[in-house]
Here is the input.
Amino acid sequence: MFDYILSTLIFFPALAAVFGFMIHKDSIRAYGVTVSAIELALSLWLWFIFDSNVAGMQFMENLPLLPAFGINYIVGVDGISLFIVILASFFTLIGIASLTDTKKVKNMIITLLFLQMTMIGVFVALDAILFYVFWELSLVPMLYIIGAWGGEKRIYASVKFFLYTFTGSLVMLVGMLFMAYFYYQATIDPITGVGIWSFAILDWHRLILPETYQLWLFGAFFMGFAIKVPMFPFHTWLPYAHGQAPTIGSVILAAILLKMGTYAFIRFSLPMFPDASVYFMFPIAIIAIIMIIYTAMVAYAQEDVKQVVAYSSVSHMGVIILGTFALNVEGISGSIFLMIAHGVVSGALFLLVGVIYDRRHTKMMSEFGGLASVMPIYATIFGVMLMASVGMPLTINFVGEFLSLLGFYQQSHILTLLAGIAIIVGAIYMLAAYKRLFFGEVTNEKNKNLPDVNKRELVALIPLTIITIWLGIYPKPVLEPINNSVEYVVQLMHDKSITEEAKTRIPNLVQASMQEVN
Amino acid sequence: MEMFLYIALFAPLVGSMFAALFSASPKTLIAGIVPSALLFISFLASSILLAYVLKTGGSIHVEMMTWMATGDLYIPFGFMVDQVSVTMMMVVTLVSTVVHVYAIGYMSHDKAFNRFFAWLSAFVFSMMILVMSDNFAGLFIGWEGVGLCSWGLIGFWYHKEVATWAANEAFIMNRIADLGMLIGIFLVYWNTGTLQYVEAFAAMPSLETDILTWMGIFLFIGAMGKSAQFPLHTWLADAMEGPTPVSALIHAATMVTAGVYLIVRANPLYDLIPHVGLFIASLGAFVALFAASMALVNRDMKRIIAYSTLSQLGYMFVAAGLGAYWVALFHLMAHAFFKALLFLGAGNVMHAMNDELDPFKMGGLSKVMKGTFIMMTIASVALAGIFPLAGFFSKDLILEVGFIQNHYIIYTVLLFTAGLTAFYSFRLVALIFHGEERYKLFGIDPHEAYKFMLVAMTPLLLLAIIAGSLKGTYFDMVTIVLPATQYHVHSAVVYWIMTIGTQLFVIGAIAFAYKKYALSEVKVPDGTSAMENSFGYKLLKNQYYIPQFYENYLVKPYRELSLAFWKEVDMKIVDATVDGIAKAIYNTGENTRDMQNGNLSTMLKWMVAGAVGLLSLAVVFGLAVKFSSEIEFFLSTLGVQ
Amino acid sequence: MEIGLNHYLVLSTILFAIGLVGVMRRKNLLLLFFATEILLNSVNIAFAAISHYYGDLTGQMFAFFVIAIAASEVAVGLGLLIVWHKRHGNIDLDNMSTMRG
Here is the structure.
């Protein structure tokens, strides 16, 4: 019964998208909502039947595709990917439900459903080639969304988005091929002289590579992931993409697509190259700090409120990267939690920006001011999300940020202090933007009679607000499965690391728990 | 007892949510009454807890649920009522009940009446979390929560530019300090393995002094932000843009004292690092004097009181830094009562004067506002530390602490500041209530505040008078958890000389203030007198030029740097590089497309060129292989490996 | 002085160079064919000479192959050339650029 739930999750939206072509355009919205609601229900059911105490993969499926080359259809889910899958289906539903009237609604909804397939595929794929296929496929619907529904410079933005990320992934593909080759080399049978080809990620996790190989492969994978995240200095495609994309595109991009990069770091780079991860820990941490502070300052300078949120995404992704490379349970759990948190909060912020964009067709902050008295409910929800974004305790972001920074503190005090500046600079640009939008007198005539958020917008925003606060107060249901899977990964990294430094940097949990027993 | 703990904690939250339900609708009286009633319930519950703690000498500890748990980290929502936190709970609930009731009158004409109570009760809830939490993470929740509510309340009148600016300033400055606090928390966690007070403090004596010092410093940085200590003090004076009840509750009685509470709470840590304690005390003494000096010349009633708050916080830090934690907490409590009273009185005056803040435009108000006049005078007497009011017991004790521990410089500074305190307090009282009725020039018709507002203030008045007599009971109670050091000057003669000397000095300062501002003709400062043009006066009037310094050397450069980062670095370097690479590739294609011009002879030429190129490469490699040993020899003579 | 292998190879090289220059410089398609023939024949000379030198007939076999293929190529090529000339009235290389990229 549960055996094929992951395949169902992946291919149901795609199938529905195909059938969507046959639906009349008046009822396509209802159709889209229904499909994505079923999909969300399925993914929530997945959470329900998910065994939180198991650290490894669950609901694995294995279907040979090209067995001679070790390319198979392998999918599975663990605590690390579970919540991102749920987030993906959740945001597709939110996105479709809150979709404002645009041209070609039908195309948009079909594209979104197709995009959903690729997103879920990426997060449950356990075969590198399968992962790569979904990873690249996800670019296509996004390219279409930005290119077809975007703003003035949409072609430039979409092509830049596509080519930039595509270039990075090609380097990653080369890394994957090399990895498979090394796996083949390592498994050569001394008698027959024949090795085993495998692209299965779990096989790769078991492979112990010499340090030099690790460094090169880490670099190759890093190119793909870093551009996707996006890490400084590969981030410039993001403001363009966000600036030109329609609201729904920005929401999905910020909430889910960016998480692919950070997720891939945890799925590939850390367990496959533990020594390289330790080797590159500090350079990456420094990049993360640059991301945090530099992009926060750039965000402060923006005139366009959507760009503020876009740059703030980069800044927050810096904290996620930092937590990931803390290489201990606290940090990695925190970074995964922050991925979800940032998904919820930045998704909500982009939706909120969309609300005023729909009313005024401008995102320039100078056009607004004093909205708090005109749109009080809007201002309140925006305020909640603002506070979540700056990491107020009892909101979802704080848990992630706190744990990420706490985790990295074990590795370096000074760098954590620098990264902690995030909480200051984050407050600066967010409060400045809020002040310009909401405070002061209403100076612009056009703003005097703006209607407050309507029902359709509330349908999208209220659940996000509830999640923001609920998971901020009670993160346990999410944090616990994450924790178990992360402990497994950290232990794996410790066990297979070869350098002395890596052994000390990555904690040995078994030993620690043994000591506790004694 | 656990039930009372939960009632005390959550009643304000319920009140806040109740008021928030109405926040979008026009003024509804019930949105003010219900939160006030709930706060009173919270106050009653706190009193019961106080009685319990007094009677049994024990503490109550509950763990509501898990908050965060990952790896070795385990943080629950845990609450603890012990002698220290119950003191704070009493102060918080009492003052906030008074302020809530008062605000029903004060805010009665404001159209955002409901929203005000939502924020104000939310603040009380955060403050209760802050003081009741049994771990550092919970403290941090409250810490940030009060910061948030402070932001919302300073910027309550959000259409005013200065108010929102001040709100953001307060939030951001507090954030700077919060970073220090966060790092302090990380230090505690990675060195003791827990964030629970009890376990963490128990583990601390076995740690190295270096680590403890850093812990102490970083936690104190957090305290500096909330308690507005130098150099993070500028936000407090600007925060006076908020409604006056907010100033009374948040920026005088409760939130700003959170820093002192933190130091008192972390007393086992600070006991281990007396050198950090001495630094705290020295900074406190400096701030006491520094803030008092700015209050001397200021022409804004609320800012004068704000500076006095700052100055008194300095006193508290002196006591806390010198290890006299119970004295610090005692002064905190006494100060909360009389300072809140002073602020609420100022609120009455503002109402009467149509929100005029310049005391030089008032004068002679004692005739129309008798109740307010009496209350503010008594509060000022208490602040000045005249026997037998609250300030005498708490403030003089701090002076004694300094004296006994042989920190004579600190003692002298504090003594001098006590004189300044008395002077500026009574300068204010004299300017407002005595002398000529200068307000008539501005056509203002002052009137006394609502009766119930005055009635609401009476508990504070009573406590400002009698708080000193509670000292014995209080001492017996808190010293169960705090170091029970008695501070008595050993020689009776010295004691009496000190006490009477201090009293005379203070009374002299009061008399001088009266003489200058009440009895003789008040000259409204207009920038002409010699004193106003002196360097010292200007320095004080411009708050030592610190706000200007921050504006010119921090805020502006930050803005400019941000712009430069965006326009110059991000657009012209990072993005241009990316586009440059793309363009280079594109241009290569554009330029080399001539090779494919379809002309057979051109293509043949390229073919020949390619063949020649490959051939010559083959020749070069062939030669290199043939003469490899010679080449190696040649290179080795050049020193290349 | 006996005529040895080197002389043949030098001759072959000279012919090859002449052919190469012809290939590069000629604009007339017919003359281009001539140049190609010179190239091929220079190679044939080298093949035959080396074959003789080593006493191995394979080289001469190859030369025959080349001659045969060159002949068929010319046959096809001239046919195309005539068709082209009928259509366009000239056989100038510069006008043949429909494959322009």
The mean pLDDT of chain C is 88. Chain C has one domain: 5-91. The radius of gyration of chain C is 17 Å. Residues 5-91 of chain C form a domain with the Helix Hairpins fold (CATH 1.10.287.3510).
